[in-house]
Amino acid sequence: MSAQPTSVSHLNFETWVECDGKALPVYGVEINGTKATCWIASQAGKNFSVQFKMCDRSKRGTFSGYVYVDGTFVIGKVLGTVPPYNHSKCVVDEFRPTPTTKQSLCFSSLKTNDDDAIDDNELLSRIGAIRVEIFRVEVTGYEKRRPKEIPSHMGAQQLTVHEAAKKLGGHRVMLGAPEVTSAGNILRTEKIGSAIVEFEFKYRPQDVLEAQDIIPVTRAQVVAPQAAAEDPARKRPLEPNDTTNTNTERRDKKAKTEPVDVDALVAARARIRELEAQLDVKSGVKTEEIRVSGAFGPGQVIDLTDD
């Protein structure tokens, strides 16, 4: 089985999200015009960076990637092939609230409550996505950094949403502790035309993505050694009139695609993993990756860059 892609490429640009120095696998990639979307599994408490680059550097031009996290503009970074702005890759891993302070970007858990009086619609409409918009630009000079207000949903305080919101995610991006840094200047740019390409990484906890059939689930199939030895089906080849496998396939094909109760499914899968871990000690485990049919089947197309 081929390795899971860890980046998305479209219209001569490639973008990915890294945690602990490793690019996160991308799932359910979809391309619609100039926009590419995908899903990634977020891990609460982990810092991350957003990275992007040009694929074919034989094309001349100056570009800027504008990064947004949970609806908040973080920063723009210039790259291209025209000196002195011919950077091959850009990395965004911090938010600069003041010219001399920086704060890392970190995935964080949301607190849930069953209080129906909680008004979390505005919060939920903002969180859950990392976006990169790439424009062709003209560099017009330099300017000093300006202070930026930290939005409430990215602050250090614990955020609470209604229990039902767990089905929509459960994570957000918060900022790390402030660190002192040099002020420096930033490039002043002017956008030329509309965005060339837009990348959107929708992030959720892994168990939520598994429950929604966006990430394939790895399950353990346990076979007792003695039972395997005594199983007649394992001793003889399938006869032409043997319908055992055919019937099994028919039952599999009849599986219905229905909305899932995320909470119940996550709990059930956690219990399955616990039981499988216990059986692993007793009888040995054969691990097989299977994909359950669902409404959110991952896309296979990753790179639609024009030749």
From TrEMBL:
InterPro entries to which the protein is assigned, alphabetical: DUF7918
Residue ranges annotated for the DUF7918 domain, each copy included: 15-217
Region spans: Disordered: 226-259
Basic and acidic residues composition-biased segments: 248-259
Pfam families attached to this UniProt entry: DUF7918 (PF25534)
Name of the protein: DUF7918 domain-containing protein
Source species of the chain: Exidia glandulosa HHB12029
